[in-house]
């Protein structure tokens, strides 16, 4: 008899059931195998291979430069580290906007070449044709409203979105449009908590907030921010669970000192 405990994999359906049961969804970003393994073992529900890799992995100022090939490389690495979590991959800037055929082709490449489970794209009514076309191939789509970093040059700032009545009305309409088009979930980024709660209660698919308060169905953070690997970013919504920047720096300083003093390696650390 096998003593192997079977792992119940997360699916888009599980997320829907969690919303119905009032169970919150925990999501983090991941870009590589080792980190994905740790986050998955820790019980994270969803791993997002975010285009924030452009910032935190490649050091770019915005998410715009990252390419589809680079996203696929990150997604392949994450998928190899995961046993349970649902893996969602961002469609990068330029791989879907204004062209639903390209959106479908980009999504098919992500799914085929990485083994990920779903894609995410930014925007509302303006991307609905792409959402519908991707869904024709049976690829689950997560939407993303509010602060949409791929449009940073249109807005010019990373401040809270939809504070004005007209923006809130458009965001609520976009959420309904994306739900109707077939998105399985929506990220709501940096919008007033009351608006995020209202949206979450008005649609049946789960909402995942980042800087959107507690009335949403789940939360996402960039793992480099919440683990303190990236210590130059201090928005109000960010809770830091570790200070890895200084932990790693301290460990490396100790390593350097111990090499230079002749303490490392000692007699037990050699053959
Ligand atoms: O790319 C990313 O990390 C994201 C999250 C902030 C939701 O889209």
Topology:
Elements: H1 12-21, E1 25-29, H2 33-41, E2 46-49, H3 53-56, H4 68-80, E3 86-90, H5 100-114, E4 118-120, H6 128-136, E5 141-146, H7 152-155, H8 165-181, E6 185-189, H9 193-202, E7 207-210, E8 218-221, H10 223-226, H11 244-261
Parallel strand pairs: 1-2, 1-8, 2-3, 3-4, 4-5, 5-6, 6-7, 7-8
Helix pairs in contact: 2-4, 4-5, 5-6, 8-9
CATH fold type of the largest domain: TIM Barrel
Record field, number of beta strands: 8
Query: What is the number of helical segments per DSSP (H or I, 4+ residues)?
Result: 11
What distance lies between the first and last C-alpha atoms, to the nearest angstrom?
42 Å
> What is the number of independent domains?
2
Q: Which structural category fits the helices and strands? A: alpha/beta
The average pLDDT value, as a whole number, equals 97
State the fourth-level CATH superfamily of the largest domain. Answer: Phosphoenolpyruvate-binding domains
| Residues in helices, as a percent range | 40-55%
Please write the string of helix (H) and strand (E) elements: HEHEHHEHEHEHHEHEEHH
Q: Which outline best applies?
A: globular
Q: What Rg, in angstroms, do the CA atoms define? A: 20 Å
- What spatial order of strands do you see in the largest sheet? 1-2-3-4-5-6-7-8
């Amino acid at each position: 008899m096998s003593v192997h405990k079977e792992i119940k994999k997360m699916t888009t359906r599980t997320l829907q059931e969690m919303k119905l049961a009032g169970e919150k969804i925990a999501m983090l970003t991941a870009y590589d195998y080792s980190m994905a393994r740790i986050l998955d073992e820790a019980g994270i529900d969803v791993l997002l291979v975010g285009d924030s890799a452009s910032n935190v992995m490649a050091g770019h100022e915005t998410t715009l430069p990252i390419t589809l090939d680079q996203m696929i490389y990150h997604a392949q690495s994450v998928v190899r580290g995961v046993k349970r979590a649902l893996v969602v991959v961002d469609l990068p800037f330029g791989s879907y906007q204004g062209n639903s055929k390209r959106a479908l082709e980009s999504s098919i490449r992500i799914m085929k070449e990485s083994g990920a489970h779903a894609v995410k794209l930014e925007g509302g009514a303006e991307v609905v044709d792409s959402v519908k076309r991707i869904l024709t191939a049976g690829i689950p789509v997560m939407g993303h409203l509010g602060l949409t970093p791929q449009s940073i040059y249109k807005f010019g700032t990373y401040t809270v979105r939809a504070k004005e009545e007209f923006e809130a009305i458009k965001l609520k309409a976009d959420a309904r449009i994306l739900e109707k088009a077939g998105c399985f979930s929506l990220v709501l980024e940096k919008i007033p908590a009351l608006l995020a709660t209202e949206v979450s209660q008005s649609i049946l698919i789960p909402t995942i907030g980042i800087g959107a308060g507690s009335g949403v169905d789940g939360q996402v953070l960039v793992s480099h921010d919440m683990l303190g690997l990236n210590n130059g970013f201090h928005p109000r919504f960010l809770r830091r669970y570790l200070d890895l920047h200084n932990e790693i720096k301290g460990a490396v300083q100790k390593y350097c000192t111990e090499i230079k003093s002749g303490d490392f390696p000692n007699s037990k650390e050699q053959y």
